[in-house]
Amino acid sequence: MRVIWSLVLVGALAAIAFAGSRAGGEAVFAVAVPYLALATFLVGLSARVIGWARSPVPFRIPTSCGQQRSLPWIRSSRLDNPSTGLGAAGRVLLEALAFRSLFRNTRAELREGGRLSYAADKWLWAAALAFHYSFLTILLRHLRFFAEPVPGFVALLQGLDGCFRVGVPTFYVSSVLLVVAAGFLLGRRLLDPKLRYLSLPADYVPLVLLLAIAASGLLLRHVYKTDLLAVKDLAVGLVTFRPVVPEGVGGLFYVHIFLVSSLFAYLPFSKLVHAAGIFLSPTRNLANDNRRRRHVNPWNPPIVGHTYAEWEADFHDKLVAAGLPLDKE
Amino acid sequence: MTEKTQQELVQIDYAPPARDWMDPRIDFVARRGSWSYPGAAKNLRYLGFPNPRDWSPEDADWKLPPNWQQIIHDGLAERLGKYRSLKVFLDTCVRCGACADKCHFFLGSGDPKNMPVLRAELLRSVYRKDFTTAGRILGSIAGARELTPEVLKEWFYYFFQCTECRRCSVFCPYGIDTAEITMIARELLNLVGLNINWVIEPVANCDRTGNHLGIQPHTFKDNVDFLVDELADVTGVRVEPSINRKGAELLFVVPSADYFADPGIYTFMGYLLLFHYLGLDYTLSAYASEGGNFGLFTSHDTIKRLNYKIYHEARRLKVKWLLGGECGHMWRVMHQYMDTMNGPADFLEAPVSPVTGTRFEHAASTKMVHICEFTADLIRNGKLKLDKTRNDHRRVTFHDSCNPARAMGILEEPRIVLNAACNHVFEMPENTIREQTFCCGGGAGLGNDENLEMRLRGGLPRANAVRWVHEKHGVNLMACICAIDRATLTALVEYWVPEVGISGVHELLGNALVMPGEKPRTTDLRGLPLAGMEGVADV
Ligand code: HEM
Ligand code: SF4
Ligand code: SF4
Q1: Are the beta carbons of B362 and B372 closer than 8 angstroms?
Q2: Is B94 in Cβ contact with A58 (below 8 Å)?
């Protein structure tokens, strides 16, 4: 099964980090790899986005998901079928921040006698949203390692995130949500026969990788507690370009940062570029004002069809017989 | 008609087969009824398209050019550079499966490669192999496939099993439009001479005679005259359309089926009555005698080539603006492509209704107005005298056609016209109308006889919804604003829900419109007795 590939891959990555750091490669895994990963991420993602942007948008092809703006007294759908640039921006933001289209999701079922029914199915939407927002929260929470003093909003977020005060140290809501939501997405891929059929190894890798990152992170926080001061020294050192190799943080910590580095380095070359792709999707980011404003195709080819004069010549006698007017007698 | 019974067709298994999707083999003989005959050599030759020859999908050898792989590779590279849509759509799919059960062909066939995501993967896998590093090195582990003859055959099968309806795109979190993928895949297929005759023959006809059906100017006039006579019989009013008349205020463009075949002709009769009622200064054209554009199902260049005559004729006839009839894919072209491809239409004037004075600001650049927009404005301004009871023999539902719904968003206008013309209008379930509307199953050139089984399968979700309104509300007529629909839905309901007929919206308007000087009507435009007139009308 294709999920095996991703388990093997992520397992191998973890083993490399663990063994490598034990074998004296601390500097490599603590300093070189994160820098390299970040550089790969930045260069790779920019290259990808620039690559997309270099191809023009020859036609204005929004998918209209609501009433068009035509006659002023007919209420148009400003976000689902925007007629202005502002509306289109709103549409994209709604997609990026609230997964608008996924919210429409339905599940079709074939009943007796060939009757189809469609029920709203918000699970994918809910899990995807929970997954992404908890991931975002976790990323932001990690800023506490990188900045001294810790920015106010990070402290606030951390406070909110830990508001349930379960366990010592307290479990964060986002960590739990991330694991549950990613677990759901993975379970769905494995259990839904259609999804299992169409999933590639590359569809399991990000989920398995994230779950492994989350697991190593949770272990570092709650079980094999690491020296947080040493971690903070490393993080601050990295962002100030005066990296120090930490002492006594343990193999598990190296596994954690190596997997995170792998995720970042992998992102630009995988389907995870969807994060940027949504902003460039021509069915979503264009206003449906096609007949109001002309859209220009930069490579509009010079094509002329069968002209009227040629047509009249071809059918001259028939036009005469039918008594239709001619340009040429 | 297909030999399969309804009971047989609805035995649909959504569980995927054991065979991996990357295996491309297709048994065309076993799958008769689900593919279309190839484009005839004479049509390709006429059009100057590559590789004209006689061949059949059932042959082992498809007589491809020797360097066909290179042609496709170069064609794909070229299009990646020309279409951001293609690049973004190929790169961003996360295979979340949200689109999977949104395609009518998947719902009706259970064939997993009809899930939009897998349809796109057929092309995406080759893109990975040829254009991404991971795909080049890792091959199938990275989801990459070599472009083999089997893969090409699979493309032919599945890209001519997509009606370019865009329903998948509504549900995709990134707006990935498999219709766009299909359009570009069909362009690639055309480069090596793979296309279907139901598309290519209309394209050749349209280029040569002006319309898909190959109707020549004298026949065009005969058909219009015939419909004028029919109208005189039903209403006692003789309408006077003009053809190729210079200096008219506007040029009216319709899909050719509207003046050729039942039931489109009744819609055409409705248009003519309306224009006569208004005293509109309009002309038809026997040259720009096709609003539809099967180029949309061929290649972008072909769209442009066939669409050329619209503005060309408007300029020649010195009209001020354009009015367009009821047609789905025609309106995708008029709305999303015409101005960009063959504009700017700076020789025309921004459309203004001569009856109400309304400026159609939303069409200020393209200068073409949809007849439902035009009529909705008339109704709003109280310009039409309508006797709704003349549609009381009809209990009507409205089918949103794919392109007007999802490539334009003309949802309310036709409903406004219908509700003004009919007393009994009922909606189908909400997941099957408006932007979520289901395809007729035969768009994009697939509405031919040899593909009938697939059409009936693809049309199942639509037919289901029709049956629902029929059983719940006694609906006996489904109105739509699409010429392809009027042809394909007729076959679809005949099979699934024979109690329901198909009509255009302006046919029903024509029934209700009280013409000055008309005789008392006993029948509708089809010659069917009106409610309460069953004994009176001589049918
Ligand atoms: C900005 C708009 C974004 C949208 C609309 C979006 C949407 C989605 C959706 C629908 C999924 C599919 C879940 C599934 O596989 O079943 C997904 C997966 C995922 N996204 Fe995003 N995402 C966005 C941004 C991001 C960002 C910024 C990241 C950060 C790197 C990200 C990382 C991931 C990951 C790791 C997965 C899991 C992959 C998987 O499920 O196989 N996404 N996203
Ligand atoms: S909905 Fe969009 S992202 Fe999800 S599988 Fe379909 S095409 Fe891919
Ligand atoms: S465009 Fe329509 S027919 Fe084609 S894959 Fe999408 S839903 Fe199916």
Answers
A1: no
A2: no
Contact between B125 and B145 (Cβ < 8 Å): yes
- How many Cα atoms within 13 Å fall on the side-chain side of residue B379? 25
Span from the CA of B146 to the centroid of ligand 1 (angstroms): 28
CA of A271 to the centre of ligand 1 (A): 9
Q: Is the pLDDT of residue B483 over 70?
A: yes
B91 lines ligand 2 (CB under 6 A): no
Alpha carbon of A233 to ligand 1 centroid (Å):
31
What is the number of the ligand 1 atom nearest to the C-alpha of A275? 24
| pTM, two decimal places | 0.95
DSSP secondary-structure letter at B112?
G
**Taking 70 as the threshold, does the pLDDT of residue B537 lie above it?**
no
Closest residue, chain B, to A312 (C-alpha) = B287
Q: Do A116 and B368 touch (CB under 8 A)?
A: no
Task: Say if residue B325 is exposed, middle or buried (CB neighbours under 10 Å; 0-12, 13-18, 19+).
Answer: buried
Task: Give CA angle at B404 (B401, B410), nearest 5°.
Answer: 115
User: Do the Cβ atoms of B307 and A305 come within 8 Å?
Assistant: yes
Please tell me the distance from the alpha carbon of residue B166 to that of residue A156, in angstroms, as a whole number.
44
Q: CA–CA separation, B302 vs B509, rounded Å?
A: 34
Q: What is the ipTM of this complex?
A: 0.96
**pLDDT tier, B8 (very low <50, low <70, confident <90, very high otherwise):** very high
Length of chain B: 539
Looking at 3.40.640.10, 3.40.50.720, 2.120.10.30, 1.20.950.20, the CATH number of the domain A2-321 comes to 1.20.950.20
CA trace torsion A192, A197, A198, A204 (10° rounding):
70
**C-alpha span between B329 and B164 (Å, rounded):** 10
pLDDT band at B38 (very low <50, low <70, confident <90, very high): very high
pLDDT in tens, A66-117: 999 999 999 999 999 999 999 999 999 999 999 999 999 999 999 988 899 9
Q: Is B164 in the pocket of ligand 3 (CB under 6 A)?
A: yes
Cβ separation of A290 and B336 shorter than 8 Å? yes
A34-43, A140-149, B83-92, B529-538: least confident range: B529-538
Number of H helices, E strands in chain B: 23, 8
Query: Looking at the predicted structure, is the pLDDT value of residue A313 above 90?
Result: yes
Structure tokens at A104: 């429409």
| pLDDT for B485 | 95
**Residue B539 pLDDT > 50:** no
The residue of chain B nearest to residue A287, with distances taken between CA atoms, is B408
Alpha-carbon span B537 to B539, nearest angstrom: 6
pLDDT computed for residue A237 by the predictor: 94
**Single-letter residue type at A308:** Y
Q: Is B172 in the pocket of ligand 2 (CB under 6 A)?
A: yes
Token pair in block for residue B124: 């995406």
Our mutation pick for probing the ligand 3 site, out of B107, B178, B446, counting the most ligand atoms within 8 A of Cβ, is B178
- Paired tokens of B351: 């459309």
B22 lines ligand 2 (CB under 6 A): no
Question: φ, ψ for residue B377 (rounded to 5)?
Answer: -65, -40
pLDDT tens for residues B459-478? Answer: 999 999 999 999 999 999 99
Q: Give the relative orientation of helices A2-22 and A251-266 as an angle to the nearest 10 degrees.
A: 130
Cα of A79 from ligand 1 centre, angstroms: 22
Distance from CA of B332 to the nearest CA of A (A): 9
pLDDT at B1: 45
Residues B326, B373: contact at Cβ < 8 Å? no
**pLDDT higher than 70, residue A2:** yes
Supply the mean pLDDT for chain A: 94
A198 and B173 within 8 Å at the Cβ level: the answer is no
Give me the amino acid identity at B239: V
